[in-house]
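Researcher: I'd like a structural prediction for the single chain below. Treat it as a standalone chain; there are no partners to consider.
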Amino acid sequence: MTLSGIAENDLRIKNIFKEALVEVLEERQDLFATVVMETLEDFAMMRAIQEGEKSELVSREEIMQVLQGG
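Model: Treating it as a single chain, here is the predicted structure.
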């Protein structure tokens, strides 16, 4: 296969992928929304973990007191 043939195949694959993605976005908006929400939740969890790693440690008893309202 020639270099131009490879480039043509790459272009076809790219266009097929674009068409499939557009079709999914149009027909399965619920699926796309779920993926976006889960991605945002993952980023929020990552940030919370990073912030938690910077904070001081507390005992289990202190956490239980806060959770029990005491």
